[in-house]
Every structure is written in structure tokens, then in C-alpha cells.
Write a structure and sequence with these properties.
There is one protein chain. The chain is α+β, with helices and mostly antiparallel strands. The protein has two domains: 97 residues, no CATH class; 62 residues, bsu07140 like domains (CRO Repressor, 2-Layer Sandwich), CATH 3.30.240. Helices cover 56% and strands 10% of the residues. The chain is built from eight helices and four strands. The chain has a four-stranded antiparallel β-sheet with strand order 2-1-3-4. Helix 2 packs antiparallel against helix 3. It is elongated, with a radius of gyration of 23 Å. It starts with a helix and ends in an 11-residue tail after the last helix. Belongs to the UPF0702 family. It is a multi-pass membrane protein. It holds the Pfam family DUF421. Keywords: Cell membrane, Membrane, Transmembrane, Transmembrane helix.
Length: 177
């Protein structure tokens, strides 16, 4: 016979779950934000954390390692809560946005490698050139700018595209209809 009280009633103090979940989320967030920025690919660091931690928390709740479903659900709620809170804070305060979502880092400007920035993110010239080839660019001289975005992806602005953006507009094209 199933012991419903053992399955549904929490047996870990909710404050302990809150402290453990918060510590793991924030600790992993800092590590991923500082160390593995470009490894996260197209998934943002907070998204990656939520998926990994929820999978683990839900697995523990389902497999019985918490002894109760409510312990697992509380931990999942803590993880989602931190993700929501960090994103909310980043939207409402500019200083927090810089902490949660790093600014794009220039790696090439007007065909010149910015080696200091490349060293900061542990990007080799070979890796950068491979990214340029994937964008169909064979020579650095053809690049106006390359930036590593907050999600770790590289955005490339070719010289001809930059010229189009800075071209003076025809005042006649602004006529009202």
C-alpha cells in the first residue's frame, strides 16, 4: 500500500531547500557567466541553468531521493524564481543588466584583431577566422566589426554592410504621402 504522507508531505525544511537551491543556482550562474560565456551557444546562461537544475530537481523529486514530491516542487520553484528575478532585475536596472547579460565584446574593428579582448575570452585567431569563414568572409580586411554577443555567438558586420549603414540618406525619400 502506498504511504501518501511520505510521498506528498515535505520532509526537508523549506528553508534548507531555499538555501541549497539558491546557493547552487547563484554559484553556477556566476561560474557560467564568468568562465563559460562562449560555451553556452545560442542558449543564454540563465536558460541553460534553469534547464539543467530543473531536470536534476525534478528527477530527484520523481525518483524519491527527496522522499516527497513537494520537496522537489519547492526546489523547482526556487530555481524558476531566481531565473525570473534575475531577468526582472536586468530589465529594470541598467547596472544589473550588465551583470546578468554581458555587453557584446568587440573582437575585430576595421579589419584589426583586438587581441586583448580575444585573450580575455580565450579566443584564438584560428577560432575567430573559422567563425568568419562560416559567415562567408575570407579576409580580415573585409570586416568592419566582429563582436562576441552575450550568448557566446559571433556577429559579423562586413565592410560593405557598414558603408550602407553610414551612407547619408536622401532627404527627398522622407517625403510624406
Amino acid at each position: 500500500m502506498l504511504d501518501w504522507s511520505q510521498i506528498l508531505e515535505p520532509n526537508t525544511h523549506p528553508l534548507e531547500i531555499l538555501v541549497r537551491g539558491s546557493s547552487m543556482y547563484l554559484g553556477l550562474f556566476v561560474l557560467l557567466r564568468v568562465i563559460l560565456k562562449r560555451e553556452s551557444g545560442t542558449t543564454g546562461v540563465t536558460d541553460l541553468l534553469v534547464v539543467v537544475l530543473i531536470a536534476d530537481a525534478a528527477q530527484n523529486g520523481m525518483a524519491g531521493q527527496y522522499q516527497s514530491i513537494s520537496d522537489g516542487l519547492l526546489l523547482v520553484a526556487v530555481i524558476i524564481g531566481w531565473s525570473f528575478l534575475l531577468n526582472w532585475v536586468a530589465v529594470h536596472w541598467r547596472w544589473a543588466e550588465r551583470l546578468v547579460r554581458p555587453r557584446p565584446l568587440p573582437l575585430v574593428r576595421d579589419g584589426v584583431l583586438l587581441r586583448r579582448n580575444m585573450r580575455h575570452e580565450l579566443i584564438t585567431e584560428a577560432e575567430l577566422r573559422a567563425q568568419l569563414r562560416e559567415q562567408g568572409i575570407a579576409h580580415l580586411e573585409d570586416v568592419h566589426e566582429v563582436r562576441m554577443e552575450a550568448d557566446g555567438q559571433f556577429s559579423v558586420i562586413p565592410c560593405e554592410q557598414a558603408k550602407d549603414q553610414h551612407r547619408p540618406r536622401n532627404p527627398r525619400s522622407k517625403q510624406r504621402v
